[in-house]
Amino acid sequence: METSSPAARRDPLPTEVSELVAQARQGRPRAVARLISLVENGSPLLREVTAELCAARPSRARVIGLTGSPGVGKSTSTGMLVQAFRKLGRRVGVLAVDPSSPFTGGALLGDRVRMQDHATDPEVFIRSMASRGHLGGLSWATPQALRVLDAAGCEVVLVETVGVGQAEVDIASLADTTVVLLAPGMGDGVQAAKAGILEVADVFVVNKADRDGAQAVVRELRNMTAQIEGPWRPPIVTTVASRGEGAEDVVAALDAHLTYLEESGELGRRRRVRARDEIESIAVAALRTRFAHLHGDRRLDALAERVVAGGLDPYTAADELMDAAG
Amino acid sequence: METSSPAARRDPLPTEVSELVAQARQGRPRAVARLISLVENGSPLLREVTAELCAARPSRARVIGLTGSPGVGKSTSTGMLVQAFRKLGRRVGVLAVDPSSPFTGGALLGDRVRMQDHATDPEVFIRSMASRGHLGGLSWATPQALRVLDAAGCEVVLVETVGVGQAEVDIASLADTTVVLLAPGMGDGVQAAKAGILEVADVFVVNKADRDGAQAVVRELRNMTAQIEGPWRPPIVTTVASRGEGAEDVVAALDAHLTYLEESGELGRRRRVRARDEIESIAVAALRTRFAHLHGDRRLDALAERVVAGGLDPYTAADELMDAAG
To which H or E segment does residue B194 belong? Predict the structure, then answer.
């Protein structure tokens, strides 16, 4: 009881980044939480934290993205998968990336009831992250949060996000394996979702498979995937996540995809693309800052004014901006 | 009958950009369509087209964005608004920005049945645009397509897009007025949508107001908007777009918002921000290209490889990339 007494729990966290990272590597939840907060808030320590996390060894965690329209049962499915991976003895991390409201300043938590089952399991790390619109979102904080969970020894990290359009593409670029969830009875949701999902899905899960229309969704997906020519055709798994049905089938599909990734060399390729994207976006962000520092915002404002007034086009304006930057 | 004979309709389009723009300014649909295709396909003429469009005069078209989850009735509502603005004698443009499937290469058209009513009205220009994932999307083609419709004399341009998360933010940054559509019975769609929509909505429309639960959605929105402190509190309008009910109320709300924008100076401010964003993103795209040209992709590949292997963090890698760029 001593180690979990209120006094012990309130031990001050180290302020040194290297010490925090060392504690995270021991799997201490408070250090993990603190590090994720640091990267999420764009702390001035972000860079130091990242360097410390990258110093030791390559990433080992397997990153699984879960995406789908609102209402398909993403959180319930994530909970089901956490349970399934725990049964296999694996340490699991969950990042739930939610749209954030600048109005409340916080992440909107969906139905996390099922997640609470794992709240006391020391081998499960669950974190909701706010996605902060334009410049933030998944792009900069999530890779570092993944590194924190990896450092904490998570063998599997599930990244859950509301997926329509751009978010799906973003999550696919972060994950080794992307699961697209669908459910029957979503209005024209399935149809509207169709366009983006073939691009990103490694595995399809049709949840709420006990409901009318589930088989129609499966058939529709089968027709779509039948046209895919390539080394990997996304399997279609049915689940009733609220009752835990189909968990093993999903895990089997995920394992099959991982085997494919490893044997084909695609795993390394995806991770290199991910690193490229990350480096490039950091460099571009630095360049933007350099723009702003060199000229203040006034030059850009003046150019924008002239474009709005008519007579100057934005391409010529961009040239002028860059010429001024030397 | 002579001017609409097949032979006359097949008159070759001019190949000169200036001539095409001149024809678009006369409201000729084929020239308008051709110019939008040029900008959408990222034609080498993109820059020339944009310069020609910007040469003459400031933009006059009022840009109204419509966004909402799949199934709320966006296309039907857009059709209803087209009709309402036509009744007022205004020339209307519609840009429907749809998620695109790289699989089929084309834009997914939703229910455009109601739009067909306007297919022969020479005062209505309707165009579906594909949003091409990451680098494309709304960002570069849409502002130029708006300029084409503006040149063609459209007083109102409706931009319709599937809105969840990022797309909502994008459309809000393009539009003078953003309409967020909701409907009852969307599962937890409304709740999930909540986070992003307060940020972007200038007007809320609760469509399918004849269905159970519509009043609950209105109440929920009323509670949310009640907390907004600022010069503009988004009104909440109910419609049954499939029967054209509520069209006048939406137009009245849009007009009230336009008046607010003009009187507060916010209209000019929004348009300057829009121009700033556009100039900046063109400049950053040019910088990215410069990166690639200077070093090929090999340097970045090598850095990515080292990040994946462990020991190099992405911030240091970005520094190395930029140092190499001089």
Answer: helix B189-200
Domain ranges of chain A: 58-266, 277-324
Q: What is the CATH number of domain A58-266?
A: 3.40.50.300
Q: Tell me: domain B57-264, CATH 3.40.50.300, correct? A: yes
The three-class DSSP label of residue A232 is coil
Nearest C-alpha neighbor of A239 from the set A118, A97, A79, A104: A79
Non-local CB neighbours of A1 within 8 Å, separated by 6+ positions: none
* CA B166 from centroid of its chain's CA atoms: 12
Residue in A53, A198, A284 closest to B101 by CB: A198
- Mean pLDDT (chain B) is 80
pLDDT number for residue B243: 94
**Cβ atoms of A130 and A35 closer than 8 Å:** no
Residues pairing with A67 in the sheet = A161, A180
Q: CB-based contacts of A8: which residues, under 8 Å, 6+ apart? A: A2
Half-sphere exposure (Cβ direction) of A150: Cα atoms closer than 13 Å: 22
What value, to the nearest 5°, has the Cα angle with vertex B253 and ends B247 and B257? 145
User: What is the complex's ipTM, to 2 decimals?
Assistant: 0.77
Nearest to B288 by CA among B316, B325, B323, B241: B325
Pairing of strands B156-162, B62-68: parallel
Helix, strand or coil, per DSSP, at residue B220: helix
pLDDT of residue A107: 33
Taking CB atoms and an 8 Å cutoff, what residues of chain A touch B134? 166, 169
Q: Residue range B191-210: average pLDDT?
A: 78
CA distance B102 to chain A (A): 7
Q: List b or e across B72-101, with b for residues whose CB sees 16 or more CB atoms inside 10 angstroms.
A: bbbbbbbbbbbbbbbeeebbbbbbbbbbbb
Pairwise CA distance, residues A73 & A192, whole Å: 18
How far apart CA B122 and CA B154 sit, in angstroms, is: 11
Closest residue, chain A, to B171 (C-alpha): A134
pLDDT tens, residue by residue, A47-65: 899 999 988 777 889 999 9
Averaged pLDDT, groups of 10, chain A, 326 residues long: 47 86 91 88 84 84 87 88 94 75 31 51 79 48 90 93 58 85 70 62 95 91 86 96 96 98 94 86 77 70 88 89 70
Considering CB atoms only, which of B99, B137, B272 is closest to A308? B272
A270: closest CA of chain B, how far (Å): 10
| Residue A24 to residue A76: CA distance in whole angstroms | 27
